[in-house]
Design brief:
The chain has 119 residues and is mainly beta. The protein is built from no helices and 10 strands. It has a 6-stranded mixed sheet with strand order 2-10-9-4-5-6, with no helix packed on it. Strands 1-3-8-7 form a 4-stranded antiparallel sheet, with no helix packed on it.
Amino acid sequence: QVQLVESGGGLVQPGGSLRLSCAASGSRFRVYTMGWYRQAPEKKRELVASVTSSGSTNYGDSVKGRFTISRDNAKNTVYTVYLQMNSLKFDDTAVYYCNTVPHGLVSSWGRGTQVTVSS
């Protein structure tokens, strides 16, 4: 079954860290660039970080130097994509999703994981 399941979100103070995980089930994910997207209230969903099948990464300007994306090889066709988030800011508050880049190449959106940065 092809699906995306995000986890690891939570409530954190400014300056704190979180590590998000995305379990991407399905062998087709192997060949695609994977990305972490986020959607803040009343804002459009945006791509914040991506990692190619060979491990090359790219970041949005707002998270560059603070976030790190990585991916694991598949275990039984389940690929894991991580997003290490450091030095979190209020503006990082959003629901975070993972998907292919561009999105929708293999699966629709998962439920996402909520990240709230608050003092």
